[in-house]
Amino acid sequence: MSHITEEIRNITGSLPQGVRLVAVSKFHPESSIEEAYAAGQRVFGESHAQELSRKYGNLPKDIEWHFIGHLQTNKVKQIAPYVAMIHAVDSMKLLREIDKQAAKAGRVIPCLLQIHVAREETKFGFTPDECRAMAEEGEWKALQHVRISGLMCMASNTDDMEQVRAEFHQAYELFLELKAGAFAQAPYFTERSWGMSHDYPIALEEGSTLIRVGSRIFGERMY
Ligand SMILES: *Cc1c(COP(=O)(O)O)cnc(C)c1O
């Protein structure tokens, strides 16, 4: 059994009910994706619009492509016709552009709001207070072609697993607060996208429903 097949089986075999694996294939060749596909994996994550479009064009059409990275507004148009979910929405401006391009493509695109919980200054995302304000302000309700399906976050890049746990926990608490509050009338607000190769077991304990795992499956990326 290849390493890719083995890891796909190990990870998916250990997931609780209702949790899905997003296999993060950015910077990895199409042959690696085909191997994971043969092992039964159908959900893949990419973080560059151009690379994603090329892979979308060349690979089986029943793959569910998730855009997981920082998305620039001028790249939305390229992926709107087919992308299954956009994980890292970090501004109203981006959400409006996704709505506009989804309308042109005749689609409704599920989106997640990226929450900044990590210590690092450089990470994108809404602070919890910005997210609350945006949810309560309510402009999103008028956007007919996006569906805010939940939250996404990245923990600090640290070996301190208690720090990581506290950050996932903060995101989970915010999710529950919004689910009971501004999103109480939104039954589709259900997803929590957190957990990567080194921290997904902790993310699962802190309520993740989508784990985004790359290097553990596909090996180290060549940046
Ligand atoms: C690259 C990436 C991942 C996967 O990271 P690994 O450590 O390789 O598992 C997950 N989420 C985002 C947003 C990424 O950019």
SSE diagram, text form:
Layout: H1 3-13, E1 20-24, H2 30-38, E2 43-46, H3 49-58, E3 64-67, H4 76-79, E4 85-89, H5 92-104, E5 109-115, H6 128-137, E6 146-153, H7 161-180, E7 191-193, H8 200-205, E8 210-213, H9 215-218
Parallel strand pairs: 1-2, 1-8, 2-3, 3-4, 4-5, 5-6, 6-7
The structure holds pyridoxal-5'-phosphate.
**SSE series:** HEHEHEHEHEHEHEHEH
Residues in helix, %: 25-40%
What structural class is derived from the secondary structure elements? Answer: alpha/beta
> What's the level 1 CATH class?
Alpha Beta
Which ligands does the model contain, each kind named once? Answer: pyridoxal-5'-phosphate
Distance between the termini: 27 Å
In the CATH classification, which architecture applies?
Answer: Alpha-Beta Barrel
Number of domains: 1
The unreliable regions are none
Query: What is the name of the CATH topology?
Result: TIM Barrel
Strand content: 15-25%
Q: Rg to the nearest angstrom?
A: 17 Å
Number of strands: 8
Q: Averaged pLDDT, please?
A: 96
